[in-house]
From TrEMBL:
Gene3D superfamilies: Homeodomain-like (1.10.10.60), Ribonuclease H-like superfamily/Ribonuclease H (3.30.420.10). It comes from Alkaliphilus hydrothermalis. This is Transposase. Belongs to the transposase IS21/IS408/IS1162 family. Residues 127-301 form the Integrase catalytic domain.
Length: 494
């Protein structure tokens, strides 16, 4: 039984035979079928089988020169600060073979690199900020149910460094529009602008470089100039430089979004997040005097004032309305009122929404579409004038099918005037809401012929008739006819 692994049961037998029964080491080894050396090791209780020493024999090929080379490679990575361009264990092995004529195996170098990395201590300097001095911002992700669909949303998180007041807002994408909008809304929520904003090296803000060498994107440069704060970017892989907001990302996920929210749209979710941010103001952070709200009030006098004009955070383009009364933006289409066909409009795309203007007048607004493209958002009202002129298209019109339930369209096929009554019913849907019209449908008995006039009666709306209404009481002024009688010699009765 040589090479057997000694477990607790075998160890117990060795100890009992040696201590209680007084058996010799040779007899114990023969009885248990193990070596005498094993019995000798455990019979006195000086060693235990569960306390094993790791095998850490230093490979002969791992000379001091090789170990120094590995350490030098790791220090170069730290000095360069490029997270995506660092030495892997394989690359170090390749360099050792090429530059040091290393003859050992790659696995030996992998083990050595792993041990050296683990032995390098991490150290951070504790940071402290003055009131109004700085705001840390960052992105995180979370999962919600959006209109019944499991969806990943992006959380823009901002935290003041002195008071630790927080602001969290959900966006569909981590794009430039969302980044600018999130910061602007954070400034407005806190009631002023901190002197600097600390962020990592995201491409929505940084054109090239990193840390103190970062060059701003043109839009972010204009944004920071408008709000008069100093953008400050972290060094690569230095999350400790914005540790407050990184903690906020986790806090928001665990405390604000558990249980997982089920919302119709992001507007509802953002109202929920704003309520949570307000509640957090009552929180008292360990090691800081006063609540978050108390410290925020102390910060307010130190903030820069908000500018009179809000920065336009949208992505803005101009487009021509096509013959289908839609405008194309980022491979997706949005409808506008039909009388704008052929005209030039301005499209303003914000983080979660999109607005369309014609000569400074807003003509349409939508929830912004993201994705591979090819989608179209229709507003039924934009097509009503055309449907009234071309009622035969009503059952196949995309704006109708996208906005009206099949149940309602099927019902209108039983109306006396078919297509024209359907168009009239669509107008009532716009005026009173689809749910209201559906509720009337359920109230009308199945054996009664539906009609527009009948629907109007349930809405308490007077039906249209060809009869001219006449007032019952006609006011007639009193006329003195005595002068007329005298002129024509009429007899006056006495």
């Amino acid at each position: 039984m040589k090479g057997v692994i000694i477990n607790v049961d075998v160890y117990q037998q060795i100890r009992e035979m040696s201590t209680i029964q007084g058996m010799s080491q040779r007899a114990i080894a023969r009885t248990l079928g193990i070596s005498r050396n094993t019995v000798k090791k455990y019979c006195d209780g000086n060693n235990v089988p569960w306390d094993r020493k790791e095998y850490s024999r230093k490979a002969d090929v791992l000379t001091d020169d090789v170990l120094d080379f590995i350490l030098q490679c790791l220090e170069e990575d730290k000095a360069t600060g490029l997270k995506k361009q660092q030495h892997t264990a394989r690359r170090i092995y390749q360099r050792l073979v090429d530059e040091k004529e290393f003859t050992g195996s790659e696995s030996t170098i992998r083990s050595a690199v792993s041990r050296i990395k683990a032995s390098i201590p991490k150290s951070f300097i504790p940071l402290e900020f003055d009131p109004g001095e700085a705001l840390q911002v960052d992105w995180g992700t979370a999962t919600i149910y959006l209109d019944g669909v499991k969806t990943t949303v992006n959380l823009f998180c901002a935290r003041l460094c002195f008071s630790c007041a927080i602001f969290v807002r959900a966006f569909k994408q981590q794009n430039e529009e969302s980044f600018l909008e999130g910061q602007m809304q954070a400034f407005e929520y806190f009631g002023g602008i901190p002197h600097k904003v600390i962020f990592d090296n995201a491409r929505v803000a940084v054109k090239e470089g990193f840390g103190q060498y970062a060059k701003l994107q043109n839009r972010y440069k204009a944004f920071s100039a408008h709000y008069a704060f100093q953008p400050t970017f972290c060094n690569v892989a230095s999350g400790n430089e914005k540790g407050l907001v990184e903690n906020l990302v986790g806090l928001a996920r665990r405390n604000f979004l558990v249980p997982v929210p089920k919302v119709k749209d992001l507007t509802i979710l953002n109202h929920l997040l704003l309520e949570k941010c307000n509640q957090y103001k009552q929180h008292v952070i360990q090691g800081r005097e006063g609540s978050v709200e108390t410290r925020l009030r102390q910060e307010l006098p130190y903030f820069y004032s908000l500018p009179k004009y809000r920065f336009d955070t949208s992505k803005t383009v101009t487009a021509i309305v096509n013959e289908y009364s839609t405008v194309r933006f980022e491979k997706n289409n949005y409808s506008v009122p039909a009388f704008h066909i052929g005209k030039e409009v301005t499209v303003k795309a914000f983080g979660n929404s999109l607005e369309i203007y014609h000569k400074a007048t807003k003509v349409a607004s939508y929830e912004r579409i993201y994705g591979s493209g090819g989608q179209t958002k229709y507003t039924l009202e934009h097509y009503m004038s055309m449907l009234e002129q071309k009622p035969r298209a009503v059952f196949h019109a995309k704006p109708v099918r996208q906005n009206i339930q099949k149940e309602l369209l099927q019902w209108t096929t039983s109306f006396p005037n078919g297509n024209r009554d359907t168009v009239k019913l669509l107008r009532l849907c716009l005026d009173y809401g689809v749910d209201k019209i559906l509720s009337i449908k359920k109230q009308i008995p199945s054996d009664v012929q539906p009609s527009i006039d009948l629907v109007l009666s349930y809405l308490d709306v007077p039906t249209a008739t060809n009869i001219i209404p006449i007032h019952k009481d006609v006011v007639v002024d009193t006329v003195d006819l005595s002068e007329y009688d005298k002129k024509y010699g009429m007899a006056v009765s006495k």
